[in-house]
Amino acid sequence: MKFVVDCMLGKLAKWLKILGFDVVYFSRAEDKDLLSLARKEGRLLLTRDHRLQDRARDVRVHFIASENWKDQLGQVLEELNLWGLVNPYSRCIDCNAELKNLPRRKVKNLVAPFVYEQATSFAICPGCGRVFWQGTHFEDMERKIQEILGPKPRKLRKRKRPKINGPGKNICPEANEKGSS
């Protein structure tokens, strides 16, 4: 499923990407541009804006009820029946491209020496060139993902996914919001 997410739902957009969904998000965008993109690329528009929802006559739209990002994420996964499509760490959280596994021998000049010595697996974004690995926030990310997915184990789509966490800055949203790098 492909999404375009309105400006009010930045954290939802980030977490949908972390969980492996194709998400386009702009921190600033005109309603007409969001509608045009949704129409052109066949994306489902996620919004909390009633006026935007009303203007979306020829575009699929899903209204998000809560102001809380965890509730928003739960609503999208539940109402659109996406639990089985969750594939964490498979997309770049910056440019949305699907990540590709990268052999360790090819990252030596792309990461700091300490990272090269400590990390065992890497992925690269073919869109922006960002390199990902299991960094210091990986356990925290895994805990948050398990909280999102709930107490009962959910059947995840069987697809090889890179075990990664960050390039220079971790993919942990809280770490990035605090300006960590």
Number of helices: 7
CATH top level assignment of the largest domain? Alpha Beta
What is the radius of gyration computed over CA atoms, rounded to a whole number of angstroms? 17 Å
Structural category: alpha/beta
Span of the ends, CA to CA:
31 Å
CATH topology of the largest domain: Rossmann fold
Molecular structure report:
- This protein has 181 residues and is of the alpha/beta class.
- It has two domains: 2-85, Rossmann fold (3-Layer(aba) Sandwich); 100-177, no CATH class.
- The protein is built from seven helices and seven strands.
- The protein has helices at 10-18, 31-41, 50-55, 69-79, 113-118, 138-149, 173-177; strands spanning 2-5, 22-25, 44-47, 61-63, 100-102, 122-124, 131-133.
- The strands form two sheets. The protein has a four-stranded parallel beta sheet, with helices on both faces. A three-stranded antiparallel beta sheet has the order 5-6-7, with no helix packed on it.
- Strand 3, helix 3 and strand 4 (61-63) form a beta-alpha-beta unit.
- Helix 1 (10-18) packs across helix 4 (69-79).
- The radius of gyration is 17 Å and the shape is globular.
- Mean pLDDT is 84; it is low at 152-181.
Explain briefly what this protein structure is:
With 181 residues, the chain is of the alpha/beta class. It has helices at residues 10-18, 31-41, 50-55, 69-79, 113-118, 138-149, 173-177, and strands spanning 2-5, 22-25, 44-47, 61-63, 100-102, 122-124, 131-133. It has two domains: 2-85, Rossmann fold; 100-177, no CATH class.
